[in-house]
Amino acid sequence: MRHILSDTIFQGRVPQLQSVELSRHNFSWTSCIFSGLRTLHVRGTGIIYAVQLVSALRRMPGLEQLTLERLSIFSEEIKRFDKVPLALLKSIALDATTIRTAAVLFANIALPFDVKIALQLTEIEGPQSFSDLFSAMDKHPDESGSVSRFLRAFRLAYRAFGVQFSTSTAIDPIPSWNPGEDDIRLSIQFAYATSAEVEPTIIFDICRMVTQDRIRSFFFGSDYRLPWRDFWRAGSACLPELELSM
Fold it and tell me: Which phi and psi angles does 96 have, rounded to 5°?
């Protein structure tokens, strides 16, 4: 059952409100509660337009944590003005979001270089999908600050993969998926579109876009059979500084 959140909640006066978590509510992004927040977590609401979300984020310049889960975001083209500056943002997480929607959102917000990013993306067509995403994020390979040295990758299902980039070279011998670890700056789970051809070597394409071949430690886990010779041939070409792999 969905609940409708009134635009006049708190009589429009919430000067001290810093954190909002909403689940399965219908509401207007122009509501007074979406202003001056430090933490925003929204889960499973109705259809929203990306332009509404971007407009709401503009009223939260001090936002530190943003989590959007299972939202139906209509990613129409936004007439771009200045990007929304989120200079204090420490982490952003998007769950069950199409890669096009993520690209539209990132194209309209300015991310700090050291922000932690966790994405669960759908409808991947191939390496070009990620090229468009990273271009929208204005994320150049290790442009400043932390440098990714460790790549952890998993084959989660036949058409689904996960990759994580860490500033640490230490490898956890127990496979784990924890975007909250301090050293992990970028986590991406992604599923291919049904019509797309699955190539496990896309892991190395993503690595090249993110780190410019600077990975020193690499862990790969899979319960699925891979064409190992071709896979590692691609990996050896992509990871010239690799010192340790598992």
Answer: 55, 55
Taking alpha carbons only, the member of 160, 157, 148, 159 closest to residue 218 is 148
- Reported confidence tier of residue 232, pLDDT bands at 50, 70, 90: confident
Listed residue (127, 139, 206) closest to 218, CA to CA: 206
CA distance 143 to 136: 15
Neighbours of 224 (CB within 10 A): 10
- Two tokens at 123? 């409808």
CA distance 37 to 243: 43
Bridge partners of 141, per DSSP, are none
210's enclosing H/E stretch is helix 202-211
pTM of the model: 0.83
Q: Rounded to an integer, what distance in angstroms lies between the CA atom of residue 126 and that of residue 9?
A: 44
- Residue 135: left (phi > 0), alpha (psi -120 to 50), or beta? alpha
Alpha-carbon span 34 to 5, nearest angstrom: 12
Q: Which helix (H) or strand (E) holds 162?
A: strand 160-166
C-alpha span between 184 and 117 (Å, rounded)? 9
Q: Higher-confidence residue: 5 or 39?
A: 39
**pLDDT tier for residue 141 given thresholds of 50, 70 and 90:** very low
